[in-house]
Each structure stands twice: as C-alpha cells, then as structure tokens.
Amino acid sequence: MQINLAIFSFCLVILIILTSGIAYRTFLNWKKPGAKTFGFLMLAMMIWVIFYLCEITLPSLPLKIASRKILYLGMGISPPLWLGFALRYTGISPWWSKRGHVLLMTIPGITSFLLGLTNEAHKLIWTSLEMPSNGELGPLQITFGPGFWFFTAIAYLFIAIGFLVYIITYIRSPKIFRTQTGTMLLGALITLSFNLIFITETANSNLDPTPLSFALSAPLLAFGYFRFGLFNLFPIAAPLIVENLRDAIIVTDSQDRINDLNSAAKKWLEIKENVVGMHIFDALPKPELFRERWDSTDEAIKLKLVKNGTPIWYEISIIHLNKNGVDPLGRVLVIHDITQEHEILEAEFRRSAQLGLLEEVGRQIADSFDEMEILQRSIEAVVERFGYAEAAISLLVPDNIMEVTVISGTEDFGYSPGFRQDVGKGIIGHTAAIRKTYISRNVAEDPYYFSNDEHYGSAICVPIFTGKNLYGALYVESIEADAFNQEDASTLETLVTQISASLQRARLYSRAQEHLRVMAAVQAVSRVVVRSLDLETTFTAVVNELKNSFGYSHVSIYLLKEDYLHLGAQVGYPLEMVISKIHISQGVSGRTIKTKTVQFIQDTSKEPVFLRTDHTVKSEICVPLLKENIVLGTLNVEGDASRILTQDDVELLTTLSSPIALAVDNARLHAQVKAMAMTDAVSGLANRHALEEYLTAEVERSTRLGYPLSLIIFDIDSFKQYNDKWGHPAGDVRLKATATLIRSNLRKYDTAARYGGDEFAILLPNTNKSGAFEFARRLQNSARASANEAHAENSVVSGYTLSIGVATFPEDGNTLANLLLAADHAELMAKRLGKNQIFVAGNLNKNEQT
C-alpha cells in the first residue's frame, strides 16, 4: 500500500509540473480568444492536485483538513470553467462566451468552497472524517454531507452541458474540424470516467483517481487548443459565420465543379435542385462573362441582373486556392450586392455632371455677345454632357408662337430650326402658357406631347425669361422613360438663368456701343457674375469693379434675408462705421425694399432716414436687385465731395442691377443644387460624400490644432426585420425619425450624415473619447425611449435601438481612413455583441464591450 501511495504521490508531483506549465504557456497568450478561461481551468486543476497531494502526505489531522478545504476551490470551479471554455471554444452561445460571463457560472463552486471552509459550523460538506487507517500517510476517511452531493450534481450538470456542446458541434462540423472537437471530448471523458469511478466507490482504493486523470486529460485539452491554431481563430464557429454571411459564397474544385455554397449563394443562383457537383458554368448567370476572367487574379467582375423588373448590381471576386502556392485546389467566388453603392455612385456622377454643366455653359457663353451663339453653345453643352436624344431652344416670336431657334441631339426626330408651335400646344407651347417647368415622365402617355412618330421616352421643358418677359423655352427629350427628376429641373432652371443673364448682357452690350467706357465696365461686371456662382466672390468683385472703373468712393451690396438686409461686400467705408445688418423699416435701403424702386438722394443732409456710415458722404443711390419682381437685395453707391452722383449713375447702376440680381439668384440656385448633391434625400442629413469632405477638413484641423476628434458610426438594429414587418415606407419614416433624433442631440458645430442604408455617422470636433461615449449613450437612450412598443430595458427593438461604434482621432486612427475603419469595426463589434450596444474602438484589441 505504501509503495502504491508513493507512486501515486510521485505522479501527482509530475502532474503539478504539467498543469502549471500548460497554464503558464496559456497565460503568455492571454490576449487571445479563450486563453484566460483555459488558463484558469488549468490553474483550478493544479490547485486540486496540489492540495490533494498535501492531504495525502501531511502527517497531522489539522493540516489534512486544511488541505481538503482548499482542495474544494479547485474541485468546485473546474466544472464551470470547463463549460465556459467549451462555450468559447465552439462559439455556440454568444452570451455565455462573452468576457466575464463565465465567472457567473463559478458561483456554485465558490459557494461550495466557502461552505467547506466553514463546515464545522453546519456539517453540510462532510459529516465526519478520520485519519487514514494505515497511519499518517494517505487521504482522509470522509463521510460526505448533503451539500457535497448537491454541488456535485451541479458540477456534473456543467460537465454534461459541456459534453452536449461539444457533441452538437462535432455533429454539425465538417470533417476537417472534428479532430480538435474529438480531442477535447476525449480529454474530458477521461477525467469524467475517473471521477465517476471514485464517486460510485467501485474501486477498492480510497485514493481519488480524478486528479491523476488530469495527467491524460490536460495534455489532450492543451493539444486540442494549441495544435490547431485556436489562439488566432476558433475554426469551429467559422462554418456558422460563412453560412450566415449576406454575401453569396461558392466553392469549386480544381475541375470547376461546385463543391460547397452557403444559403445566400443558393438563393442567388435561383436553382432549386442540389447544385453540388454541377459544373460552375452551368449554374452561373451570364457564364461567358465569367469564362473571360476565370483565370484573372486581380480583377473583380461587375455583373448586372434584372430581377422582377429591377436592375441589381453585383461585384464578384474570384479567389484562387492553391496547395503550397503552386498546385490548384479550386476557387472561391464571393458575390457581393453593390446595387446601393452603384446607385449612390450614379447619383453622385449625375450631380457632378449637373454642376459641371453649369460651369461649362457659364464658361462657354461668358465671352459671347451674340444671342444665337449663346443659345447654340448652351444646347451643345447639354447634349455633350448628358447625351440626350434631343435638346432645343424655342423663342417667342410675334403672333404668340414658339419657334425652334437652335437644336441638337443624338437622335434625329425630324425637327429643324424654324419649326413652330402655338403657345398652349405641345409640351413647349404648354410650358410657355403656364410659364413654369414641365416634366413629362412618359411622352407616350402625355396629352401635350406632339410628334409624327411614336416615342416612349421622357421630356422636360423650362421657360426662359428676360426680366419679367417670356423669352423662350429650353426643351430636352430622352429616349428613356422617367429620366428627369427635380434635381434635373433645378439644374436646367439654373442653366436658363445663366442663359438669360448672358442674353441680357449681350443686349445691353449691343445697345450701348457708343458708351464704350461704361459698357467695358458692364462687360467686366457681367463676366464676374456669370463666371462665379459664389456670392461672396461675386459681391467683392462687383464693388471693386464699380470703384475702380467709375471712381465711386463708397460701394456696398446687401442681401435680403427675411426682414433684414445683410451686408454682402463693401469698399470705401470706415470699418468702425460699417452697418452689417439693416431692418427693412430703416434707412433709404429699407424704403428701396418696400417700394421696389431706385432711390436717388442728391443731398443726404436733407434726408431724415439716411443712415450715415461716413461723415464725408454727400449723395446716395440705392438700387433694388430684382428677379421676377422679387427683391433679392440692394446695390448701394454713395458719393463724397470728390465724386458727386448724377442721373447717369442712376441709369448705369439700374442697368448693372439686373445681372447682379441674376448672379444672386444663380448663386442661390447653385447653392440649392449643391446642397442636394451633399444631402441624403430620405433623412435630410449630409450624405456620405459630404461626410468625407467634412471629415477630411476636420482631420486636417485636428492635426494642425492638436485637439481630439471623435467619430460615431451606428446602425438601426434589425432594420431589415422592421422593413419586412412594416414595409419600406415605414422604414423611410424610421430613417427620418432617427435623423430628427440625431439633430436634437447635436451641437451647432457637429456633423451628422447618413453613411449608407440604415447606417449613420456623427462627427464630433474637439471631443475626446469620454465625451463621445456620453454622446453615444444619450443617443442610445433617446432611441430606446422612442420605441412605441413594450420591451425589456436592455432588449433589442427592431427599428429603434442602435448598435454604436465610437472612435477618436488620433488615438484610434492617425489617418482619415484608419479613423473610419476603427469606428466601423467598433460598430460591427457592437452588433456582434448582441446589438443595442455601444462599443469603443480602443477596446477592439481587448475584445471587450463598453
């Protein structure tokens, strides 16, 4: 017996060295997934073995009892740690596998340990114990109490659940993953078998063989953990991830036969029968496109399919699989739906083209004083930029008739200059009659459309005015139905305003040839207002041109906004006396606004409402800037003793007021077009393109000034489920409501944007990570409170709760791209951690939730 006991004790010593070595090796890699849980499992085994050895070898009863009490710590927490590691290893239960949650399962084991420490007071763990029958060496003779058996039952429940987790994973895993799962099962089965032998007292020896079983199970567990590279990735969970990807994944073998595919791929192929084993080109849509690039390794395939009448765009990557980098094993096709990105890109291209058209037309007609040349260049620019089938300008001629003056296009519809239509007839005549923009989404069904042939496209017609009078109409026709929207209308309206301004400029030039000095200045001013769509640039150029060309000592331009005139630009006034804002009830400028007429004050000392901004001023001319009888602002010129104003100046400034007013209106329309190009149509927030511009500027400013910059990216939880339940119109309402919620939380210098789909981004200048986190928490609470259905406090409510990622520059990313990536990854982690979460980018390396 003593020899067996010595051998047993020696084996325990070896086992202590083995488990401590495994624990040490594990904790060296403590940042890796599952390392902490596995390391503490090895430590628990080591505690069990160490103090069981102490119980056997220590000579006195008090020391043996103390060893037995401490032994219960390792014995009690080993089963829950075993289950926790099984859950983290397989990824089968996301909640229990989160950091810290395994500790909840150790509560019963810790409780049994505490009861063991105080057993003399309650006798729940053992009712009696004695020294070993053969003397001082050997384990205690114990009669276990009801508490021991209760906690033993809990321990076996944890072990059984762990076995069930491994068995389920083993069954569901591909063969390549069953080796490591089977290894873990075998290691646990050895320990369980030894423990059952001891508990049921089927063995003759009083020695507990369970700790000794660790000599076999611990290396097996460590082998299963270390051998298959599980410090870097848990491969057991990989098939579940691939299966649930939104992208379609197709795997082929070296003979181009389909070997495997996920659910998204089955849906994409739209083939009901089993396609495994089928040749890939027999299953793919448009196989000739894939054959051309089948062997290419650096080019993605763009594919357009029409499903239920809707075009859908895909980007397909072909990944080549090779053995040892040489022998081909097959290919992996990754099919990603880029419809939304494609539509956004097309919209951006269209908006860019619209802005480019305005710039190009302004440039081409800026130097022309011939009406026909201005009209022809404008039409050619429209066709060249957008490739429309037909574009024409018809002018109003005597007898209330619209006559085609210039025409261009990619198609010949049989019309030519000189074609006439009565006002009120045809789309052009109807536009002239109603004097506003008209859009025909399908000319085949339009009652006003006139043609000798059948056409099925769409058309838009915009009236052209010179002052208050109808000058003509710009007509554009496309062979595609519903090709024009409100943005196109705004662009063409701005275009005809430019044309009108150029026409008026040309007419002014032709009527004033005898006044060369005057008209040279008019030309210069007109060029400025046509060439620039920026109000500040236009105003500054105008006041300087008037001062330099005509010797005016004081010139200012005011822009009307609601009931106040706001200073746009000035020259000649003392800075301390400049009036930046004037109410329309005050001064000569206010009277000009009310009467919409020129005010000429020859002697300012006799004018009671005159607002003096320089004591040297003797006279004043204030001209309203009118567009279709709407006052946009005022042009104000004041003269001192060296430059007395006359009636000639009144006529000159009246003449100049029209192009300046048109410039103001052009800039306003341009600002609207630009705003639409930078604004998301559904939410009313900035779009992704605008966000990138703001973010670039803020990153540069943050780098230069050294203050923090935080970026929040979040999406609406289960938004697809919300859309599927309530419909897409309701989804749009939720997007708008979310945008309103964001605005209510923003500071005046923060920026919010719709990042894409149900994703939003918020830019917080001069905000550190703590401040950004508090902002995110307020936003999350507000979103949760807005839910109109009953829900648990921390539950996910589709369409309402948010998954939020937070990143701070330069802490989480020292470049724009890295900051975006950090915030995006943080948002993805918030979703992976169960949604309705806030995740801070700084915790990505720690793999923990904030």
Short description:
The chain has 850 residues and is α+β, with helices and mostly antiparallel strands. Strand 12 and strand 13 (469-478) form a beta hairpin.
Show the helix and strand layout.
Blueprint: H1 2-27, H2 35-57, H3 61-90, H4 102-105, H5 107-117, H6 119-122, E1 126-130, E2 141-144, H7 146-172, H8 175-199, H9 210-226, H10 238-243, E3 248-253, E4 258-261, H11 263-269, H12 280-283, H13 287-292, E5 301-307, E6 310-323, E7 327-337, H14 339-365, H15 371-386, E8 390-397, E9 401-408, E10 420-422, H16 426-434, E11 438-440, E12 458-466, E13 469-478, H17 486-511, H18 516-531, H19 535-550, E14 554-561, E15 564-571, E16 581-583, H20 587-595, E17 599-601, E18 619-627, E19 630-639, H21 647-677, H22 688-705, E20 709-716, H23 719-726, H24 728-745, E21 751-756, E22 759-765, H25 769-785, E23 802-809, H26 816-832, E24 838-840
Parallel strand pairs: 23-24
Antiparallel strand pairs: 1-2, 3-4, 3-7, 5-6, 6-7, 8-9, 8-13, 9-10, 11-12, 12-13, 14-15, 14-19, 15-16, 17-18, 18-19, 20-22, 20-23, 21-22
